[in-house]
Structures are given as structure tokens and as C-alpha cells.
Amino acid sequence: MNFAMVVHGAPYSSEACLSALKFARAVLESGHSINRVFFYHDGVHTANSLIAPPQDEAPISEQWQEFGIGNNIELIACIASCLRRGVMDETEANRYEKSGSNLASGFTISGLGQLIDASISADRVVTFGV
Amino acid sequence: MSSILFVFSRPPHGSINAQEGLDALLMGSAFTTCSVLFVGDGLMQLVSGQSTDDLGTKNFSLSFGALKDYGVTGIACSEPDLVARGLNKDDFLIEVETLNAAGMQAFIRNHDKVLNF
Amino acid sequence: MIVHTINKVSALGLCDNLVAEDDKIILLEDGVYLGLQSLPFSVFAIRCDVDARGLRGLLAAQTEVIDYDDFVHLCTEADKVCSWF
User: Which residues in chain A are closer than 8 Å to C9, comparing Cβ atoms?
Assistant: First the structure.
């Protein structure tokens, strides 16, 4: 069965981001697939490569990157949510003349259409809200 | 094509959740059949006369008037939550169907996917 | 059958009259505190959230503790998943 996932929570501010990661791992371990993880609202903070938690705390953002890259799962951060919250790839940073970009590897910035497309094509959609 | 029910449960302006939910609904309506159900304090998104001039934020409530143009025809709210807030349908910006518990359960069952905001 | 997830105590008020008789409720995050009381639904609570909060011996008898793979399995059995937060 194919799952679409939606994440609304930022790492550390909300447990939703961590719960979603645990669910995503369980989906694959159970032999199912994930068509896309869509980060919306504060969930886009997960895609901020400048997050540097204390060493004795779980690096949730890095764990998401490893999960996405290692399993070839699309991690999409909503562009409108990203721009409001200062998460940018190089293209957007240049477009808005910002001092730098900070999108973590493994994440792609894209539009809301990706949420709708994933929801339509998946067998199940599961949202991790805040 | 899968139909999507959007469920809005957050009041407007206190956070951007309600506005970002409406953005998703408008995008969804361009792709497939979409309906919306307002529950809890989400009903407050529909109250007419919202004025954000002094607050300095976008008055996104005006976009609700465009839902019909976007093809969103299933627009409903929780009757118990309406009554609990001392509101009636005349307080709303747009025409909304009120559903009791059984009606809301059927509304959810009749859509393929649910996206909560 | 619909799976309803609840991640905080206040979110029960959003969905308690939307849950049909054969639906299932999964409590996660701070939603597991709802597992302390007896609810008129079929209720599951995520183990790591229960344990993190020290609730293992305190849950109502009806609250069934499950892991994430059980959560995934319940989603596959459901027609759809509805998340309350």
C-alpha cells in the first residue's frame, strides 16, 4: 500500500516531526511504500540545514535527511511556507536577494500542488499536525 | 479521481494555520473534487465582518467568497459546534450547510481522503 | 472503518461526535493522556509516547498499547485516516 504523509510540526517545537519519522520508518519496515512526504506549516523548519541541536539530543532534521536520501523518498517542503519562515534553496535566496541559502540536502522546495497530487495518488494520507 | 475533504478546526489570525489550510483547499480544487468541513473554533474563520486593517495581516476570510467559483460546493459546518458558540448561519460570510453528528460522519465517509488543518 | 489520530487532549473535543461506532482512535504524543480515562471508542495508544510519560501502569484497561508498525497496519485496514490536533 502506498502512503502520502503530511508534516505540520517543526523539530523540537512539536513532537509531530519525530512521530512522522517513526511512522515513515514503520511504513517501509512493514513492506509498504511512501510516495511523498510533504512538509507544510512549521513542518518546513525540518528542512533547515542550520539546525544544530545539542549532542545529547536526537538530530531529527538529519535523521529525516538520511531517511529520505537512504530510501529515495521525496521530501517536499512547501514553497510558500518556506519563504515565510526563511527556508530557502539557492534559487529562492538569489530571487529574494537573501544572504544565504539553507535548504538541507534530501529536501526539495515545491508548491502545494505536490500535496494535492500525493494525496490523490496515495492509498492513504496521514497528517502529523500541531 | 480521489475526492478530498478538508477539515478546518483552527480559528483565524491567532496563527497562520487557517490561512495555510485555505491555500491548500484552493489549490486542491484546481486538481480534484474538494469539500470543506468546519469544526470547533474553525467555524470562527467564517464569521463575517472580520477586519484586519489595524492588526496589519491579510484578511484571508474574503477568499471564502470565491470557494464556489473554485468549484468547492460541499461546504459544511458542525451544528453542535455552531450552537455551542452561540452562532447561527446568518453570522457567516457564505452559505454553509449545518450537519449533525450523523451528517458529519456521512460527509467524511463520502470522500476518499481527508486533510486536516 | 476510519482511523482517527489524536495528538493532544483538547483535540478530542473536535472529533468526539465524528467518530462512528466501528472507527478506531489512535492516541499519540500528548494525546496518550486521554488513555487514562475510559472512552466510548476503540482506543489504542502509541507505546513510546506512553512510556516516555510514565503512563504504562496508569492507563484505563480498555486502552490498548501499540507500536508504530501496528499503527501502520491499522491505517491499511481503515478506509481513510483522519488526524485531529
Answer: none
Query: For chain A, which residues make up each domain, given as ranges?
Result: 2-128
Residue with cell 501496528: C70
At residue B1 the predicted structure's pLDDT band, cuts being 50, 70 and 90, is confident
Furthest CA-CA distance within chain B: 43
Q: How far apart are CA B95 and CA B90, in angstroms?
A: 8
Domain residue limits, chain B:
4-116
**Ordered DSSP codes for A56-122:** TS--HHHHHHHHHHHHT--EEEEHHHHHHHT---HHHHHHTT-S---BPTTEEEE-THHHHHHHHHS
| ipTM higher than the 0.85 cut | yes
Architecture per CATH, domain A2-128, reads as 3-Layer(aba) Sandwich (3.40)
Per residue in B11-51, pLDDT tens?
999 999 999 999 999 999 999 999 999 999 999 999 999 99
What digits encode the pLDDT tens for the residues A74-111? 999 999 999 999 999 999 999 999 999 999 999 999 99
Are B116 and C82 within 8 A, CB to CB? yes
Say whether residue B112 is in contact with chain C using an 8 A CB cutoff: yes
Given the C-alpha cell 497562520, which residue does it identify? Answer: B16
A13/C contact by beta carbon, under 8 A? no
- Is residue A20 predicted with pLDDT exceeding 90? yes
Q: Is residue A78 annotated as part of the catalytic site, yes or no? A: yes
CATH number, domain with residue C80: 3.40.1260.10
Instruction: Give the full edge-to-edge strand order of the sheet including B97-99.
Output: B97-99, B74-78, B34-38, B4-8, B113-116
Chain A touching partners, 3 or more CB pairs below 8 A: B, C
Is the CATH number of domain B4-116 3.40.1260.10? yes
B68: contact with A, CB 8 A cutoff:
no
